[in-house]
Amino acid sequence: GTSQADCAVLIVAAGTGEFEAGISKNGQTREHALLAFTLGVKQLIVGVNKMDSSEPPYSEARYEEIKKEVSSYIKKIGYNPAAVAFVPISGWHGDNMLEASTNMPWFKGWKIERKDGNAEGKTLIDALDAILPPTRPTEKPLRLPLQDVYKIGGIGTVPVGRVETGVLKPGTVVVFAPANITTEVKSVEMHHEALVEAVPGDNVGFNVKNVSVKELRR
Prior knowledge:
Pfam family, one: GTP_EFTU_D2
Number of helices: 5
Strand content: 25-35%
CATH superfamily of the largest domain: P-loop containing nucleotide triphosphate hydrolases
GO molecular function: GTP binding; GTPase activity; translation elongation factor activity
Number of domains: 2
Largest sheet: 6 strands, antiparallel
Domain Tr-type G: 1-138
CATH architecture of the largest domain: 3-Layer(aba) Sandwich
CATH topology of the largest domain: Rossmann fold
Distance between the termini: 23 Å
Subcellular location: Cytoplasm
Protein name: Elongation factor 1 alpha
Shape: elongated
Order of helices and strands: EHHEHEEEHEEEEEEH
CATH class of the largest domain: Alpha Beta
Mean pLDDT: 93
């Protein structure tokens, strides 16, 4: 699922001890940020959650401490902190989720700088709205690296993978490398639903004629 995402929202807890556990050597905060970057999710938003349970509640100092620490870590991974929106929130009370919170008057909003255009806002929903939709290279030739090949009873051979460039649709004649096998695509499915066409970013399974699973093994 993550490999299909265009943006990740990293939620870190502001509670005493909670943030420290997440950012520790084997903590989930580190693991999730690294996973997102490794899987090619280039845009990131950081929600500093549970601001209502920081010491004292809604503490600016605690938020700044967390922001500094997370910025330094995500920079090491490969994200540019200047392009990452940090938002202090409370999911439980709704602070800065959809509307600017009155509990954190010190928070003047988030600002991000990126070559495709800068953005600013007050809330988490603003940050989500500022995500840049990637261009889908549909006009290029079809390329679809195979993740796996299944044999499904009553259907036949079903290769599975993510469309990187081009368009895949029923009736398309495709060539598999390195075996150099040419065949026609009978049907294309994503999440168990038939597709008229699959575009870059789609993780799909497609049924091919007269090709055995063995022939397509890497």
